[in-house]
Structure formats: C-alpha cells, structure tokens
TrEMBL record:
GO terms for biological process: methylation. GO terms for cellular component: nucleus. GO terms for molecular function: histone methyltransferase activity; protein-arginine omega-N asymmetric methyltransferase activity. Pfam families: PrmA, PRMT_C. It catalyses: L-arginyl-[protein] + 2 S-adenosyl-L-methionine = N(omega),N(omega)-dimethyl-L-arginyl-[protein] + 2 S-adenosyl-L-homocysteine + 2 H(+). Keywords: Methyltransferase, S-adenosyl-L-methionine, Transferase. CDD domains: AdoMet_MTases (cd02440). This is Protein arginine N-methyltransferase PRMT10. Methylates (mono and asymmetric dimethylation) the guanidino nitrogens of arginyl residues in some proteins. Ring-like homodimer. SUPFAM superfamilies: S-adenosyl-L-methionine-dependent methyltransferases.
Length: 373
C-alpha cells in the first residue's frame, strides 16, 4: 500500500532522474512528426480501430482511461463508440494538440485531456476500460507499460478490461546480409582510427594508442552488439519461431517485466543456409477478460510480413561470424532481457546459444550481450 506522502502512487524500484527521463524519452512524443509516423501505421491503426468499434459493448456508456493519449485518437474513437466519459492522459505538450483535435471532432463534452505523468494524475472516478498503445521496440523497450500497470492498479474497476489485454514476445533464427554490412562498417572505422593514431604521432608527436582499446569497445557496441531495427521478409526466417514471454495485461506486475528470462529451442527448417541473426518481435491481442470478453477478438502483430509491415518492425541481433546450418539442426537458447542501468527505458539482452547438428554433434555454448537502444 502506498504511503500517504505518495498520493496513492506506488513506489518504483530503482531511482532515476525524472527531468533526465523526460528529456530522453517523453520529449520525442511532443512532436507532431513522431505522432504522424505512428498514425500512418495502418496495421496499428486498423487493429485499434477494429478493436474499439467491433466491441462497442465495452465502451457504450462506460468510463475510459487512455494512458499516453498522444494525439488523442484512441480517446476520440472511444467517445465515438459511445463512452460516457474519457480521461485522456498525456505527459507532454502534445496534450495541447490533443485538446484541439478533441474540440474539432466535437467530443469535448466527453473527452477530458489531462496533461501530466500517469503516476501523478488523480481522477474523480474509477474506470471501466483502460486503453493504451504502450508497446515499444521488441515490446518492452521504453518501459511505458509500467505507467499502464500503475493506472490499472489505481483506477480500473474489478470488472474492468484492458485494451490490449494480452501480449507475446517472439524470437526466430534468420538469414540476412546486415551482419556483413555492419562488420564492414566496423572494420572501416577501426582502420580509420589506426590511420588517425599514426598521423597524430607523425604530425604532432603524441601517441594516441592508449585509447585504441576503448575506441574498439565503443565501436563493437555500436556496430556489432546493438540490435538493429529492420523490416524482415518472411523468407528470411529459417526456423520455427518461439514464444519467449506471454503477458496478461490484467495481472502483470512491473517485477514480471523488469527482467525476462526464457529457455527455448529453435529448430532450423531451411536447407543449407546461413544463420546470421536472431530476430525479435511481438503481438498484442484484444480479448477483454474471462468475465467480460470481446465480441470480436483482434490481433496486432509485428511479425515479418510481405505487405503489412509496422513502424515497430523487428529487432535484429546479429551473429559475428554467422553459422552454417541445415534442416534438422537445433539451437538451444538461454535468453534474458533486463533494463539498462544507465537508462531504464533501454534494454540489455543476453543470448547464450548452443548449436546441435542433426548428426548429433554439439558445439560449445556461446554467450553474447546485445543492447536495444
């Protein structure tokens, strides 16, 4: 239970500077161009639109809370679907633009836009529905789901529903030319560095080589160990994807999502190919609850697609060097993902993989640390 001084806001484990967090994260969402990118994502937009308007019984005459309303479009749709009242909470100055759109769309008697962090906002009543588009790259980057959990625990009625209601994280083995490109970029950067070291000593009499190891580590992280955003083609998947995490948005806790662990198997199903990377993506579902289900379930997936790519794309974790694999080979994976100590919005990811050939031969496990930035 929160202490009286906390105004009902649950304590957050691990301290961080709110002003720095705002500068690094929230300020991005205050720009219309960033909102436009999300509003132009047809997969995203269609999923939320269909979830709301195909399940009006969850909204008609109900009280709705939109966490991180941004442009306010989910709040406007909720009102158009018959909500009695919508509280649209936005931490940034985008709230002013949301108010303008609420007015233009003639729902200002229903939608109340509130500017401020969700953790610090007080509402005059409990709500029937919490709706939010909180998902970041590989689902959990940005850690915005923390704010949704806080809103749920403080304001959702026991009979209430979450939109979306469930989420899943996936990993698959893939082939890609990105690894070769990034390795070339890294080697070019290192060659340029050593030329710089040589020129500096010849021209200015100062030996800079003491910084070479630190420079190498910086560039290894940037080029080789930082995951990449990519829009993969389904043909690049060379094995059976595995679900590594399932989340029930009605019951999930911050502790549950702060650190994600999974052990799983990735069977290879493509003849004589190259394993270049692991790819991660997510999907979310609008199911309502067991007591109050939807009439029509809707799925939003960010899986590799021929013609339905999303602005989330997939996260690609490159292998250096790539591995030769064949049908029947298997990858035994130990996976972990936790929040970066330097920035709780970013993620540190660890893959430990062991390749087992169809012949029965096994290679020693290899552990690699990656960064989602």
């Amino acid at each position: 239970m929160a202490s009286p001084a906390s105004n009902g806001v649950p304590a957050v484990k691990g301290s961080f500077d709110k002003s720095v967090d705002f500068a690094n994260y929230f300020c991005t969402y205050a720009f219309i161009y960033h909102q436009k990118e999300m509003l132009s994502d047809r997969v995203r937009m269609d999923a939320y639109y269909n979830a709301i308007f195909n399940n009006k019984h969850h909204f008609a005459g109900k009280v709705v809370l939109d966490v991180g309303t941004g442009s306010g479009i989910l709040a406007i749709w909720s009102a158009q679907a018959g909500a009695r009242k919508v509280y649209a909470v936005e931490a940034t100055k985008m709230a002013e633009h949301a108010k303008a759109l609420v007015h233009t769309n003639n729902v200002e008697d229903i939608v109340q836009v509130i500017e401020g962090p969700m953790e610090e906002v007080s509402l005059p009543e409990k709500v029937d529905v919490i709706i939010s588009e909180w998902m970041g790259y590989f689902l959990l980057r940005e850690s915005m789901f923390d704010s949704v959990i806080c809103a749920r625990d403080r304001w959702l009625k026991p009979s209430g529903v979450m939109y979306p209601s469930h989420a899943r994280m996936w990993v698959a083995p893939v082939r890609s030319g990105l690894g070769d490109q990034k390795m070339n970029d890294y080697e070019t950067a290192m060659s340029d560095w050593y030329s710089f070291v040589n020129d500096t000593e010849i021209n200015y009499g100062v030996n800079m080589n003491a910084l070479s190891q630190a420079y190498r580590e910086e560039h290894e992280k940037y080029y080789l160990k930082t995951s990449l955003w990519n829009s993969l083609h389904p043909s690049q998947i060379i094995g059976t994807p595995a679900i590594i995490k399932e989340i029930d948005c009605l019951t999930a806790t911050v502790d549950e999502i702060r650190n994600v662990f999974a052990n799983f198997l990735l069977p290879i199903n493509v003849d004589r190919t190259r394993l270049s990377a692991f790819a991660g993506w997510f999907d979310v579902h609008f199911r309502g609850s067991m007591q109050n289900p939807v009439e029509q379930e809707v799925e939003l997936t960010t899986a590799p697609s021929i013609d339905n790519s999303t602005h989330w794309g997939q996260q690609v974790f490159l292998l250096h060097p790539p591995l030769r694999v064949d049908v029947g080979d298997k990858l035994m994976i130990a996976f972990s993902m936790s929040r970066s100590r330097e920035n709780h919005r970013l993620m540190d990811v660890n893959f430990t993989y062991e390749l087992q050939l169809s012949s029965g031969k096994c290679f020693k496990p290899v552990a690699i640390k990656y960064y989602i930035e």
